[in-house]
Structures are given as C-alpha cells and as structure tokens.
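Late entry, evening session. Most of the bench is empty. Finally got around to the prediction I had been postponing all week. Sequence below, unchanged from the version circulated by S.P.
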Amino acid sequence: MLRLLGDQRVRFLAVGATNTAVGYLVFSLFTVWVFADVYLGYLISLALSYVVGITLAFVLYRRFVFVVHGQVLRDFARFVSVYLVAIGINAAALPLLVEVLLVPPLLAQLIILLITTLLSFFGHKKFSFRRSGE
C-alpha cells in the first residue's frame, strides 16, 4: 500500500478523484437545485464548480501529489492557466453535448471530466508545478 502511495500517478488519481467528486457534486447541486429553471444554467453551475475545484485542487496537488514548496503565486498562476484550458474545453463541449447531441447535462459533464482529467495531469506535472532541473 505504501508503495502505491509513493507513486505520483496514484496520488494524482486519488486527489483528482476527490476533487472531481467534489466539483461534480457542486456542479450537480447547482444544476439541479439552483439553476434548474435558468436557460443554460448548467454553464453557471460549471463556472461555480470550477471555482471550488481550482481552489481545492491547488492545495491538494501542491501538498500531496507534486509536493513542492515556495513560489506559491507563480504556481497558482500556472495552475489556473492549465485549468483555463480545461474550462475552455469544457465550456465548448458541454453545450455541444447538451444542446446538439441532447445528452443530459450531468452525463455530459461526466464524459468531459474524463478527458479534461487526463489533460490536467500532464499540464500540472509539466507546467504548473515544474521546477527547474526537472
């Protein structure tokens, strides 16, 4: 078990799964209960879930996955830039799936999360938390 926890990819998946679950829960709650009757309300839910997700993920990835110190503001700026790519993909794909392909918003978001999770691992590893000499 300790050997598995020593693997950065396993830690990324564990933290990512936690963060994804929290973000998806926030997205779902806002979509179903707060913005259910609002046209394109799922996009507002998406934005709010990203605010929560970015904040939680930054702390967890920095502390438990990439284990870096110092350069907090630089790391956060880079981290947010990786997430901006992910939210851009998400914001384009979500209406396409929901409005054009008629996929329910909660299922559409789940599908997109699978893709953006893979992209974010490489973005955070190679850019957000990269230190010179790596």
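Two things to note before I forget:
The mean pLDDT is 88.
Helices lie at 2-5, 8-34, 41-65, 72-100, 105-128.
Will write this up properly tomorrow.
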